[in-house]
Structures are given as structure tokens and as C-alpha cells.
Design goal:
The protein is an alpha+beta fold. The protein has helices spanning 40-60, 70-74, 124-130, 134-147, 180-192, 204-211, and strands spanning 3-5, 35-37, 79-81, 95-102, 162-169. It folds into two domains: 3-103 and 161-209, no CATH class; 107-147, no CATH class. The structure holds zinc ion (ZN).
Length: 214
């Protein structure tokens, strides 16, 4: 009878610290490049990806699973994770933030497109109407290409486009992980290395950290 686990426990040990978290803005007020709280659905997605790796790590290192009695393992029990089991949270003090950057030129806010009279200068009026301003044509073309449609600019009005990059903060070097792939080796180290010596961690951040003299 294998031991069936219904969730993927967070590693016992964490080296995470909160002191290098970024300044967090309310989403609506974040300046370009400013950090906001990561959307919960995105956090869930990252945790799911990490769960998959962590299950493998635990299956290879069953004695490191929090809450598993060593006697059971000694008796030869194998470990199985329930299909929908997942990691509920990051190792202590690791946390996701995302930084929003306007995409492209911010063309979505081109004034006067589709709205009567930009109201800025009467001289611009006729030009806009005739669509002869070479500059605005260039902008329109770019936007239209994105929509795959040829004629009128159907820019989503008032909605600027953002690209939000997510990062995992908490590493004691103050650096951040840019993806779950970058974080996975560190996760394995958190689980498996009893010495808690960053020199033994192959992740990118620890490698830079120890090379810089720590
Ligand atoms: Zn590491």
C-alpha cells in the first residue's frame, strides 16, 4: 500500500527574507516599471508548475517530505501524490510580484483617433479627417497589423496595453527569480541540503551570491 499524499507540502526549511521586497503600488497608480501584487491566478499557475517539480524532488528524497514518519519509509512504503495535489504556498518569505510595463509606444492613447475633434488645435482637424498626416498613418498601420484588420483603427480606447513580468522575490542576495525554471534548482536545494549552505545550491542566484564573497 503506497502512501497517498493529497497535497504537496511546502519545504520545511526556507532561506527567504522579506527585506528586499520591492516597493508595491496600487495597480491603478503603478508607474511604468513599478511593482504591484501579483494576481492570484498567476501565483496559482506558478505554484502548479513548482508542484510538478517538487513532487519529483520529494519522490527522489522521501525522507525530506514534511510530516512523513520515517518508520513508514523504513518499512518500504512508496509515496504517491494524488493527481490534483498541489503546493499551497511558496517557501516562507518567497513571494511573487509583477512589474507592469506599457507595451510598444503607448499607441492606444493616440488622441483624436475616432473621437471628434481632439480639441487641441484647429489646425490638426482637417489633417486628421483626411488621414494625410504621414506620422499618424504610421501609427495606425502598426496598430492595425496587431489586429489583423485593414481599415479603421479599432484601438481599445482608454485601455493601455501592458506587459506584466512576474518575479519571485525573497532570495537573501536581494536578487529575484524570473521564472519557475530559475527557481526550481533552489527549491530542490531547500529540500535536500541539510547544511543550508548556499555554496551547495546550483541556482543562478546562489551561484552569483557565493561568488560575490558570501
Ligand atoms: Zn539557490
Amino acid at each position: 500500500m503506497p502512501l497517498v499524499l493529497s497535497d504537496v507540502p511546502t519545504p520545511r526549511y526556507s532561506d527567504g527574507v522579506t527585506q528586499y521586497y520591492p516597493t508595491v503600488y496600487k495597480a491603478a497608480r503603478a508607474p511604468a516599471g513599478g511593482y504591484v501584487e501579483c494576481h492570484p491566478s498567476r501565483v496559482r499557475k506558478y505554484l502548479d508548475r513548482l508542484s510538478a517539480s517538487l513532487k519529483d524532488i520529494y519522490i527522489r528524497n522521501p525522507t525530506k517530505i514534511p510530516g512523513i514518519q520515517p518508520e513508514l519509509l523504513r518499512a518500504g512504503e512508496s509515496i504517491v501524490f494524488r493527481g490534483n495535489s498541489g503546493l499551497l504556498e511558496f517557501p516562507k518569505n518567497y513571494k511573487m510580484f509583477e512589474s507592469k510595463k506599457p507595451e510598444g509606444l503607448g499607441g492606444g492613447e493616440t488622441p483624436g483617433v475616432g473621437t471628434p475633434g481632439g480639441g487641441e488645435s484647429p489646425m490638426l482637424g482637417p489633417k486628421e479627417g483626411a488621414g494625410e498626416d504621414p506620422e499618424s498613418d504610421a501609427v495606425l498601420t502598426k496598430l492595425e497589423q496587431g489586429d489583423g484588420d485593414g481599415k479603421q483603427a479599432k484601438t481599445p480606447k482608454g485601455e493601455s496595453r501592458f506587459r506584466a513580468d512576474a518575479f519571485i522575490f525573497g532570495h537573501p542576495s536581494g536578487s529575484k527569480y524570473r521564472s519557475t525554471n530559475e527557481f526550481t534548482p533552489h527549491l530542490e536545494w531547500l529540500v535536500t541540503d541539510d547544511t543550508h549552505d548556499h555554496k551547495n545550491c546550483p541556482c543562478k542566484l546562489c551561484t552569483n551570491f557565493t561568488r560575490s564573497g558570501r
